Amino acid sequence: MSGAAEIQKLVIASGNAGKLREIRHLLDPLGIEVLPQSAFSITEVEEPYCTFVENALAKARHASKSSGLAALADDSGICANALNGGPGVYSARYAGEPKSDERNNQKLVDVLRNQTDRRAHYYCVMVLVRHADDPQPIIADGAWHGEIILEPRGEGGFGYDPYFFLPDLGKTGAELPMELKNRISHRGKALARLTECLKEGAF
Ligand SMILES: O=c1nc[nH]c2c1ncn2[C@H]1C[C@H](O)[C@@H](COP(=O)(O)OP(=O)(O)OP(=O)(O)O)O1
Ligand SMILES: [Mg+2]
C-alpha cells in the first residue's frame, strides 16, 4: 500500500500558532486538507526526550491517536554554539513554565551577552505518521544558520526570530516575509525533504 501518497487530510500536531501559519503555507500547494490539532481539542503532550526526533514522534503519535487522522509534527529549537547546542530541544521552556517567547529571548540574550561567539542555528525535525502506530514514520530535518543579536529587529515570524540574524541577508528572521523564510528556514527545508520522501513513495 502506498499510504503516504494517498494522504488527503492531515492534522498538524502543534499548538504553536507561528508554526501552524508557516506549515499551512508550505502544505498549501500539495492539495492536502490541513487541520490544526485544536480542531480536535487535542491536549499538549509531554516532550520528555532529549532528541528532537523522539519528541516529534511523540507529538505526531498523540495527535494521530486522538484524531484518527494522519498527523504531522514539528519539533524544533534554537541551538547556540557557545551553549554547546543549547537551549536546543528545551528552547520552548528555556526560561521555565509557563512558556514565554519574551522571557526565553531575554534569557538567551543575557546568557550570550558576554560571549564573542553568538553563532546559532535553528533545527527542525518533521515527522509524519499515517496512524498512531505507524511503523514507518516519515522523518525529515533541516537546519538554518545565523547569529543571535542583542537587540530585537522586526515584527514578523515568532519565537526567537527577532534576535536571529542572517548575516547574508542583513536581516533577522522577524524581518523576512513568510514566503522567503519558508524557502530558506529549517522548517522549510525539513518539509521540502519530507515532501520528497512522500513523492518517492518510500513505503
Ligand atoms: O522558525 C522559528 N522561529 C522562531 N522560533 C522558533 C522557530 N522554530 C522553532 N522556534 C522556537 C520556538 C520554541 O521556543 C521552540 C520550539 O519548541 P517546540 O516544542 O518544537 O514547539 P512549541 O512547544 O512551541 O509548540 P508544539 O510543541 O506544540 O509544536 O523553538
Ligand atoms: Mg513543544
From TrEMBL:
Residues annotated for Mg(2+) binding in this entry: 46, 75
GO biological process: nucleotide metabolic process; purine nucleoside triphosphate catabolic process
Residues that bind substrate: 14-19, 76, 158-161, 181, 186-187
Cofactors required: Mg(2+)
Molecular functions per Gene Ontology: dITP diphosphatase activity; ITP diphosphatase activity; metal ion binding; nucleotide binding; ribonucleoside triphosphate phosphatase activity; XTP diphosphatase activity
Pfam family, one: Ham1p_like
Keywords: Hydrolase, Magnesium, Metal-binding, Nucleotide metabolism, Nucleotide-binding
Catalytic activity of the protein: dITP + H2O = dIMP + diphosphate + H(+); XTP + H2O = XMP + diphosphate + H(+); ITP + H2O = IMP + diphosphate + H(+)
Gene3D superfamilies: 3.90.950.10
Cofactor note: Binds 1 Mg(2+) ion per subunit.
EC code(s) of this entry: 3.6.1.66
CC annotations in GO: cytosol
EC top class, as a word: hydrolase
List of catalytic residues: 75 (proton acceptor)
Assembly notes: Homodimer.
Function: Pyrophosphatase that catalyzes the hydrolysis of nucleoside triphosphates to their monophosphate derivatives, with a high preference for the non-canonical purine nucleotides XTP (xanthosine triphosphate), dITP (deoxyinosine triphosphate) and ITP. Seems to function as a house-cleaning enzyme that removes non-canonical purine nucleotides from the nucleotide pool, thus preventing their incorporation into DNA/RNA and avoiding chromosomal lesions.
Similarity-based family: Belongs to the HAM1 NTPase family.
Protein name as annotated: dITP/XTP pyrophosphatase
Organism, as annotated: Nitrosospira lacus
